[in-house]
Design goal:
Enzyme class: hydrolase
Structural class: alpha+beta
Organism: Hydrogenophaga defluvii
Number of strands: 9
EC number: 3.1.4.-
Strand order of the largest sheet: 8-7-6-5-9
Helix content: 40-55%
Mean pLDDT: 85
Strand content: 5-15%
Radius of gyration: 23 Å
GO molecular function: hydrolase activity
Protein name: HD-GYP domain-containing protein
Distance between the termini: 36 Å
Length: about 400
């Protein structure tokens, strides 16, 4: 079944907020939910783009329509009134949330994205599948932001899994969370998210290989890394992507602000998130940086000065993001499960006791309390405890 369906005109009401996102068939967002179609001319311009909506939104919209008819029958409305009822102007928003499961959905999205990035131009319906994946990922981030970070940081540390997909999903989710505080225009955020998950399309398999490689890059590998932004853009164009902002962000994500001469918020955030996630990742040649060091790298510029973007980044994510490990004042080792009220006071669950033995049951701790204050980060490779995400996240 196709992912998109044609926009049902009978459900549109001029000069009133639209109940769903409206897209072009190539995945470009035409109108965001809540925006207004301002008159007949605006509607005609919209129709010229062959507007579509997702099947998920259409099913929710249709469900609300049948619910409306059922209510009219129960209220003994006349047959004429029932016949004149159209698609409602609002769509229930809790339909998807009831079925979301971060513990299983994020690994599934990771596997799907890894396949899609590896297939590249050989993938059937690349843009459609990517848009479907992106929509699910954004719903998951909005549903449980801390659970999203926990699962994605955990996936990032799994050396046997695809690094290119884990990196892409975490960068995209970080951008999604930080974008409002970083001043990224709301209309640009979908393009930013898509750029984050496709910026390394041109070297997806190489990115996985390099994550495990302990030897220095060969000359050929250096060339592929240098050329991958433009290769990614070329692949996206060949598959029908016409979103100019999406393509621009992919093209420039490795260039510096000095090189491009711009200071746009979306591009600056994408660059910073890319670097941040890379520093948190273990490589064949080096371990992952402790989270405070990774945070310091985005908070301060080359001159050692705080930046507004870096401050927004740390305020949003904290110094110890969910999924990272810390040592507490009582010498327990804990995993961060939720961001706290301050950047350095996350909510954690202790998993290793002060004697160095794994705890039978994770013990929730609030690092605002003196006895459970965070003393410092613990490298991922030093923790040998197998985490149970269901048990850890069920308490947050």
């Amino acid at each position: 079944m196709a992912f998109y369906v044609p926009l049902p005109l009978e459900g549109l009401q001029l000069n009133k907020p639209i109940p769903v996102n409206i897209w072009e068939p190539n995945g470009t967002l035409l109108l965001r939910k809540g925006e207004i179609i301002e008159g007949e001319r605006h509607l005609q311009n919209l129709m010229a783009h062959s507007p579509v909506i997702t099947e998920t939104d259409y099913r929710a919209w249709s469900y609300s329509y049948t619910t409306q008819l059922d209510q009219m029958v129960r209220r003994n409305n006349t047959l004429d009134e029932i016949a004149q009822a159209g698609l409602p102007s609002e769509v229930p928003t809790n339909t998807e949330r009831e079925t979301l499961d971060p513990v299983t959905d994020w690994p599934d999205l990771h596997a799907s994205l890894a396949t899609l990035l590896h297939q590249g131009a050989q993938a059937q319906d690349f843009v459609t599948r990517l848009t479907q994946l992106e929509a699910k990922a954004q719903r998951l981030v909005a549903y449980r932001p801390d659970h999203a970070l926990f699962m994605l940081v955990t996936l990032l540390q799994e050396r046997n899994l695809s690094y290119c997909a884990a990196h892409a999903l975490l960068v995209a989710s970080v951008c999604h969370l930080v974008a409002p505080a970083a001043g990224v225009d709301e209309a640009q955020q979908p393009s930013l998210f898509r750029a984050a998950i496709t910026m390394n399309l041109g070297m997806a398999r190489l990115q996985d290989d390099l994550a495990r490689q302990s030897a220095p890059l060969t000359v050929e590998q250096q060339r592929e890394v240098a050329e991958h932004p433009q290769r990614s853009v070329a692949l996206l164009r060949s598959m029908g992507v016409g979103d100019t902002l999406w393509l621009h962000l992919v093209a420039e994500h490795h260039a510096t602000a000095a090189e491009t001469g711009d200071a746009e918020a979306a591009l600056a955030l994408l660059r910073l998130a890319d670097v941040y996630v890379a520093r948190m990742t273990p490589r064949g040649a080096r371990p992952a940086l402790p989270s405070p060091q990774a945070a310091r790298g985005v908070y301060l510029n080359d001159k050692g000065e705080p930046t507004p973007l870096g401050a927004a980044f740390i305020r949003t994510l904290g110094i110890y993001p969910p999924g990272s490990f810390v040592r507490l004042a009582n010498d327990e080792v804990a995993v961060v499960v939720k961001r706290g009220r301050r950047a350095n006071t996350p909510l954690v669950s202790s998993i290793v006791g002060r004697q160095g033995m794994p705890l039978g049951e994770p013990a929730p701790r609030d690092t605002m309390e003196r006895q459970f204050e965070v003393k410092g980060a613990v490298p991922f490779d030093e923790v040998r405890v197998v985490l149970n995400p269901v048990r850890l996240l069920s308490r947050t």
